[in-house]
Amino acid sequence: MKREPNQPSKKLLEREMKSSPSSPSSLHRKTPFLSTLLLAFIIFFIIIILYSEVFSFIFTQSHSSNYNSISRIIQRKKEKLAFAIGEREEGCDVFSGSWVWDNNSRPLYTEDCPCIQPQLACQQHGRPDNDYLCWRWQPHSCSIPSFNATLMLESLRGKRMLFVGDSLNRGQFVSMVCLLHQHIPENAKSMETFGSLTVFTAKDYNARIEYYWAPFLLESNADDAVVHRITDRVVRKGSINKHGKKWRGADIIVFNTYLWWMTGMPFKILQKGSFKDEVKDIVEVSTEDAYRMTMKSMVRWVKKNMDSNKSRVFFTSMSPSHYKSMDWGGEADRNCYNETKMIEDANYWGSDCSKNVMQVIREVFSKSEVAITFLNITQLSSYRKDAHTSIYKKQWNPLTPEQLANPVSYADCTHWCLPGLQDTWNKLLFAKLFYP
């Protein structure tokens, strides 16, 4: 039979089918390759989203960006941080700002708070001025959320919040308790001390806010919560579990350690053995090396003992003192005594705050794989030479005639009046906890 002139032959059709890109055999060969390529692209895209910003550093502008700009939060992008209910404004650095006068909403509580220790209650001990109570921290580019005691208590329901460190961290603990206690009925709260541990309980919430005395975090010869005024200070290497076993199970931990390291001399490290040994293997290292050792121990402890899906860890930076008025252009041999005005120089950085120690924190945190939020309170607190307890506190020992004649000689320029500056620390803690 003759075929039609325009009808292709069977062999030609078969050849065209084989060579056609849309033929079933061609699709069968190319589909696995395309699917694999698409799948690889999707996986790569997901990895980029999840891990490209696993470590996010937030730096505050201050006297020296190499040392003081360390405000840091490490977070995983694949899930919301524990306790977070919102986010900060884009680009908001809550640690960079200025103090503004606010005598309407400040102070946030009064000295009637029964938890304030007598060495922090300045008005009760004769401080004649009260302007230091009326300053509010205002970031340059955003606002800090108001402290919400109800939200804080509800979030702590059935949970445990723990402050660990020296007496400055104890002050922050007391501030937090005072911010909350007025919202709790008198018969529904208690505060007890058990050696190094102080526990405030909000009974209706089954919530505990605690403070644990550990000025070096590691075991040391200054671990007695009452008798600890040791000049020849020694810490034991690798000993964080001595105290750390008491921290396990906390849902929120706020660490600090700084002041006790600043001896001005090489620091003594007990290499092995016990403080009870007659012959001790002790070496002397620089303050920075000793501090680095401790920071690394803290990070390892957090990695091993804290679940980042359920808990949060904070580290509060060095608290400044104001013992040298020459730092801010004052007279020689003067300090914070009788200072009622803050320092107005935005770039002020006192000699009491070690840039080398700040650099150590930066180095250790930059290599950390655990979620730690850095509360950089150093710069904003450095302006507040007016906020220390000075001479307006309980004196545990009778003052000598020489001291009475020269108040500068016994002024406490390390600790802070409550209410006062440390309430701002807790406002920043609140902001970072719920709006990281």
Automatic annotation (TrEMBL):
Q: How does it sit in the membrane?
A: Single-pass membrane protein
In which family does this protein belong, per the annotation?
Answer: Belongs to the PC-esterase family. TBL subfamily.
Keyword GTP-binding tagged: no
Q: Which keywords label this protein?
A: Membrane, Signal-anchor, Transmembrane, Transmembrane helix
Domain Trichome birefringence-like N-terminal: from-to ranges: 91-143
Composition skew (Basic and acidic residues), residue ranges: 1-18
Q: What is the annotated localization of this protein?
A: Membrane
Q: State which residue ranges cross the membrane.
A: 37-59
Taxonomically, the superkingdom here is Eukaryota
GO cellular component terms given for this protein: Golgi apparatus; membrane
Q: Which residue range or ranges hold the Trichome birefringence-like C-terminal domain? A: 144-431
The molecule here is called Trichome birefringence-like N-terminal domain-containing protein
Region: Disordered; residue ranges are 1-29
GO MF terms held by the record: O-acetyltransferase activity
InterPro entries on file = TBL, TBL_C, TBL_N
Source organism lineage? Eukaryota, Viridiplantae, Streptophyta, Embryophyta, Tracheophyta
